[in-house]
Design a protein that fits this description.
By secondary structure, the protein is α+β, with helices and mostly antiparallel strands. 27% of the residues lie in helices and 27% in strands. The protein contains 4 helices and 5 strands; from the N terminus they run βααβββαβα. β2 (40-46) and β3 (49-58) form a beta hairpin. The longest helix is centred in the middle third of the chain and has 15 residues, at 80-94.
């Protein structure tokens, strides 16, 4: 049974395993860092296995940034990513957040456009490597 859990503690290893399954670096140490804070995160579970995840950081008033949307490859194509985005956007709107941002690769543009995101100029810089 697929279960969506909002704002529950998710083990760093489970997030690392999911990140690895989608071809990203694990970043387990980052997720263990007590300074790391989310405004909201949503985990999707099949039993006790984390199969989907999305995170959001925000100042809690005007702006929010949705990050780390991922779905385990075995579960992709079942609408889980769409549900994660829909639930996160709904949550942020309920909190009165004025502006929601997301950074995505060009190939994912159609996915994000269906939620109302539009392209804007932006920049991003990675300053160190996270294993």
């Amino acid at each position: 049974m697929i279960d969506y859990r909002i704002d529950v503690r998710i083990e760093a290893k489970a997030i690392g395993d999911l990140r690895e399954s989608v071809g990203w670096n694990r970043m387990e140490q980052v997720y263990r860092d007590p300074r790391l804070q989310s405004f909201c995160c949503i985990g999707v579970y099949d039993g006790e296995k984390l199969i989907g995840y999305v995170d959001c950081v925000s100042n809690g008033v005007t702006d929010a940034y949705i990050q780390d949307l991922m779905v385990h490859p075995s579960y992709q194509g079942q609408g889980i990513g769409t549900q994660l985005m829909t639930r996160m956007i709904e949550y942020l709107k309920c909190k009165g957040i004025y502006m929601i941002s997301v950074i995505y690769e060009d190939s994912l543009k159609p996915f994000y456009e269906k939620f109302g995101f539009c392209g804007m100029l932006s920049g991003q810089m990675q300053t160190y490597s996270c294993d």
